[in-house]
Specification:
The chain contains no helices and 16 strands. The protein is mainly beta.
């Protein structure tokens, strides 16, 4: 065995052990090692020396548990991702709970993974669900208010639509001509007026007021939907 001194590409005084043929020498453990390594083996009591940057053991299985205070190898998955666990500030392991979750499960002291949302019931957490004692229902669909929908008979005349702040409302123009609208007095291309194009919709949330519609053709219908 001989030593090769110098590596101009890295360090001119770098020393490494090689064989007679010039290959890197392998082997040796502990203080007799001819390779850079830690001073304590996996599972041995740590000697308090400074750490060195190392890789880890690739495995899809968790390593065998050792005693507290012993040194261990880092655990990596075969693709290079390091396996880790989450703890709190006291070192307590966080548990991972899977499944749909139970009712009134208490506070989330651990990391919980559910396939349903959870809602707080005042003292604990329940999984979010519908009414299990009756028929499933859904939110109300668009309801056409026949009292508010109508038709403007004469071109150039107006109709009014009352808006209330307890519901969202929309005005639909099902005709082939433009409707002009305003919260005051609408005029074609006038200040404060805006068009509701043919087939278009104007919608607003919880607004109180009166919207005035101006027709641009005879017998021009308009449809009003009110959401509760």
């Amino acid at each position: 065995m001989r030593s090769a001194i110098g590596n101009s590409a890295v360090d001119p005084v770098f020393t490494r052990s090689v064989t007679a043929s010039g290959a890197d020498a392998a082997g040796g453990t502990g203080t007799a090692a001819n390779q850079v390594q830690g001073t304590s083996a996996n599972g041995a009591v740590d000697d308090g020396s400074n750490p060195v940057k190392v890789g880890g053991v690739a495995s899809t299985n968790a390593p065998t548990t050792v005693a507290a205070g012993q040194r261990v190898s880092a655990w990596y998955y075969p693709n290079g991702q390091q396996a880790v666990v989450l703890t709190d500030n006291l070192g307590n392991l966080s548990t991972m709970t899977g499944g749909v979750g139970g009712d009134a499960g208490g506070v989330f002291a651990a990391i919980n993974v559910y396939n349903r949302s959870s809602v707080f019931n005042g003292s604990g957490w329940d999984r979010q669900r519908g009414d299990v004692t009756g028929t499933w229902t859904h939110a109300p669909q668009n309801t056409v208010s026949t009292a508010l929908s109508g038709t403007i008979t004469t071109s150039g005349t107006t109709a009014t639509v009352a808006f209330v702040n307890t519901a969202r409302q929309e005005v639909i123009n099902p005709s082939a001509a433009t409707l002009w609208a305003s919260w005051a007095t609408p005029t074609v291309n006038g200040a404060g007026s805006f068009p509701i194009a043919a087939g278009g919709t104007f919608s607003t949330d919880r607004t109180t007021g009166t919207l005035t519609l101006l027709s641009t053709t005879a017998t021009q219908p308009y449809t009003v939907n009110r959401y509760s």
